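Entry 12.
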Amino acid sequence: MIDLTAEQQQLAKIVHDYASQFPPTENGDAQLLQGCYDYMEAFKRVMDSASKVQMDYICQQYPGYLRFAKWMERLAQGIADGVIEVPKDH
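Predicted 3D structure (tokens):
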């Protein structure tokens, strides 16, 4: 087993549990995105503290975390491409 800190495990599970409550459908994805802001800090703390090997393990053990990560990647790409507009005050 990859050594994860208690905090990494706890935060990954929080994000996993959140993302897992929605069905893997277009409507479920929309619901996930509507409330994702409240889970971004936990997601980022795991991302910032984990090695690549640890992230691979987390994504394997917590598929909801992986789903959340994929959506964050899509959002970031959409913002970078100019497809998603971000209000000037952010």
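Annotation: The chain has a mean pLDDT of 94. DSSP finds five helices and no strands in the chain.
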